[in-house]
């Protein structure tokens, strides 16, 4: 029994999950001077963080708390973390949203106006100007909106380097540690029990992504986080063919949707390595790694619609992952009302990479007892109640 | 009914020794099959042969049968029988088709999606094939280890040199050095010399006297030993005839040239001496890597073989851990054509029995005995020809590890040192080693070994590198047009 | 049967059944691609369709494996595919 084993480490904070959220928390907590132990069932970026496209987006957010968090996170990526940009291939490439018909063009323009009032920069791109931005883009579109602040990173490098820097400050990162339980001391969390031993800390951050609900359960807390599966197709290298992050206006609706059925809206972007990433599908099928032909087909069909020259290009691999989502599609950043000392940081759905920088910094402020730069009330864990 | 959508009682992937033997055995027992192969002609990597002008793919065997050695006579026999089975409609054969996706349907059937490998232009359509039973005979390819300069044109795999010779009747070089380990280097060297190349030497990393390491396995090799000893003697005679030096305990530790190979350095592994020879071609081979992506895609249980390769685990009837999936040939353990042939026949009989056809059980028993013998012999060879643990010693920080993504050793080491990349999965994610066109087929073994140090990588680590949900590159239009199989 | 194929408009002799990679090699050409990061020459390596090192453009279709594609009369090959 792990409980009989000696305590492996004692720290101010244990972070469960070495994905991008856990890594960002470790980075900012250690910067604030706290001692941190990161544990993960697998290893760094073993889950959702290695299954996305590395988006840092503002364009796909409607006004509300998530947009506030995205804008704040932008300032952290471009401020606190700016010096490391080259390490994780930060590309300030901008996003181009295109509308296939008059109706979606109008909706796109309305969204851009709304977003502008929140401080998001964007430019209308008329039909004739689209080829200047994306020469290979289909001519079968009406217009577009260009968002200069959309950016992209290589998420595995983000995780690896945030943890590398954190380790230089004394953070310990231990892989192969599956959480099997918690021990409470004086009514609050005190130890994390894993398959290998015990990790002692008065504060535990649950950054287990789509598995964060299970971790909450083990602690006697509650967090309704579920997986929303997505596939990504990766093409053969063809540098320069797609210059920005390009997606169709319907994407915004899909991101905000609660539909359980397969949804697919095209998101196409090049990478510094030359490959082109093709997303995105959304399905609620639990943790099912089975490759779905309908999902891959939807990706291919949609991508060819946006970029007809993609038809002859080959996909060389594909991958899938699970976006962690909450019923209201907002992230959770806050202490579990049932388990003092246990902080849930999950539910960033498909935006976790982009939101991670801001999330990590805000969590460090909150846990260090400082006033957070952003009001965390909309993200509080107590907004969920377990059904009786 | 659309031919693409017909449900075949048996689909065989790969028409090398195992797949051919299985298609013929099953076919002669009355079990029809669909045989899918990426090559232009049946035979696989081992029984590679050129076309005869004016004759069809199946007929193209005349030059093989004449040469008279046992393996090729067996190929001729199988091709004759296959020809009859194809003509009579028992076997449906697709050449030049790659399986890019295998899925298991809810009813337990297997859905295979194929595209063109480029090897034939008129291979017909096999966009989707549905199988009651699946026999995977995917074969393998030369295992590689990086060496400084191995990305220069003129450096090829030993198997590649052999393929150019056997199938295309081309000598890929005139002054050739072969290096690596294992008995396969010998036929490549002698065939190149027979074709008129100057083979300046074979660098065998191990010592032939190390064969005692495999003596326990040789006991089980039993009946196949005399034949292999005669074969070994034959190669020794040919090496002498063509004056090909056989340098034991040596490696090529540097390959030099500007836009192609001009020289290679032969070094004794004990560090005693080294010398540089002028060559225009270097052939490298460190044993073989079985193709496991299709087996992994259907979820079969895997293990690590004596040579450190990830292999599918099968029972004594070639049946995998997944119902309805049989596996034969290199994918169950690298062991050569004769082993693959026996396993293919055995699988053919087992599948016939599964269909409900009476089979010759005495033949099955005899095949099982032969398979055991060949596996014993293969294990002895693997133990005699290990990849030396000191192989990374001659790498420089600039040596390419991943050829596709041009990842250097320094990047892999930095990932291990600074980025907590303690396993091949994370090394791949942060360095891109194994993320390119070949999807780690070439660098996977080396990356695995660089991560595991002197310890052989575990099956789970190897599976992380060998799993390829898309088994081969496929155009987006092929994916977009793929039909549902429900 | 012998016929010509064209590498960047230069005629090269090929034989029926031969791969374009074999025909190029027989003509003394060992590289026909340059890598996208370090601009290094590449040609045949594995020779059996595994490594994708020998890619070239065949009749306007980029990224074809020279070791697999059969030579056909009049085939136009290009060394400088869009990958570069």
Average pLDDT level of chain B: 90
Largest interface by Cβ-Cβ < 8 Å: B-C, 42 and 37 residues
Quote the beta fraction of chain C: 25-35%
**N-end to C-end Cα span of chain B:** 14 Å
Shape of chain B: globular
Classification by helices and strands of chain C: mainly beta
Write the element-wise H/E pattern of chain C from the N-terminal end onward: EEHEEEEE
Average pLDDT confidence of chain C is 91
- Number of helices, where a helix is a run of at least 4 consecutive DSSP H or I residues of chain B: 15
Keywords summarizing the entry:
heterotrimer, B: 486 residues, alpha/beta, seven-stranded mixed β-sheet, five-stranded parallel β-sheet, 15 helices, C: 84 residues, mainly beta, five-stranded mixed β-sheet, two-stranded antiparallel sheet, 1 helix, 7 strands, 8% helix, globular
Please tell me about this protein's structure.
The complex is a heterotrimer of chains A (about 400), B (about 475) and C (about 80). Chain A has about 400 residues and is α/β, with parallel strands linked by helices. Chain A is built from 9 helices and 20 strands. In chain A, the strands form 4 sheets. Chain A has an 8-stranded mixed sheet with strand order 6-7-5-15-16-17-14-18. In chain A, about 55% of the residues are buried. Chain B is built from 15 helices and 22 strands. Chain B has helices spanning about 15-30, 60-65, 70-85, 160-170, 185-195, 215-220, 225-240, 295, 335-355, 360-385, 410-420, 425-430, 445-450, 460-465, 475-480; strands spanning about 5-15, 35, 90-95, 95-105, 110-115, 130-135, 140, 155, 175-180, 200-205, 245-250, 250-255, 260-270, 275-280, 280-285, 290, 300-305, 310, 325, 400, 405-410, 475. Chain B is an alpha/beta fold and about 475 residues long. Chain C is mainly beta. Chain C has one helix spanning about 20-25; strands at about 1-5, 10-15, 35, 40, 55-60, 60-65, 75-80. In chain C, the strands form 2 sheets. In chain C, strands 2-1-7-5-6 form a 5-stranded mixed sheet, covered by helices on one side. In chain C, strands 3-4 form a two-stranded antiparallel sheet. The mean pLDDT of chain C is about 90. Chains in contact: A-B, A-C, B-C. Strand 18 (about 315-325) of chain A pairs antiparallel with strand 22 of chain B, so a sheet runs across the interface.
